[in-house]
Amino acid sequence: MLEPVKVRKEMQSLQRHFRDERDYVINRLQNMGFKLPYIPNSTFYLWLDLSSLPEAINDGLNFFQAALEEKTIVVPGIFFDLNPSKRRDLFDSPCHHFVRLSYGPRMEVLERGMDAFERIIKK
Fold first, then answer.
1. Residue 69, Cβ neighbours under 10 Å: how many?
2. Which residues does residue 47 pair with via DSSP β-bridges, in sequence order?
3. pTM summary value
4. For labelling alongside 87, which of 31, 53, 93, 107 has CA 20 to 30 A away?
5. CA proximity to 79, closest of 55, 113, 41, 47
């Protein structure tokens, strides 16, 4: 912190690194047919809508299971649902057809993850 110029360069390098990873993941997902209405610019997570996928994998829990079989991790959207008084059933959640994925890992890990997504969709 005593060298502001160095700190700015490090910050820019990190921003560039995560932007490149984000762009890679988004490009791969779009090539698979996913629609991404929101492109994040200040995080390393994507909120992925699965509702256009076949019924067997179009919700967060089933996609999570399919991803696990491919040795890939996503987080089902329902884990982020704010439903403190339990007024609705788990499967009525507005987050039911979503997963969250991170583009924070190393590029070779992201490549394997995107390859796994392609295998899931082809099945």
1. 12
2. 100
3. 0.85
4. 53
5. 47
- Determine the 3-state secondary structure of 59 from DSSP: coil
How far is residue 6 CA from its own chain's centroid?
A: 31
State the Cα–Cα distance between residues 113 and 89, nearest whole angstrom. Answer: 31
pLDDT per residue over 23-49, tens digit each? 999 999 999 999 887 888 888 899 999
Q: Which of 46, 20, 42 is nearest to 32 (CA)?
A: 46
Residue 100 tokens read as 């969250």
Residue with tokens 């932007």: 19
Nearest to 67 by CA among 79, 76, 54: 76
pLDDT in tens, 60-113: 999 999 999 999 999 999 988 887 667 767 677 888 999 999 999 999 999 999
Of 87, 109, 95, nearest in space to 47 by CA = 95
Q: What domains are defined for the chain?
A: 4-122 (3.90.1150.10)
How far apart (Å, rounded) are the C-alpha atoms in residues 28 and 7? 32
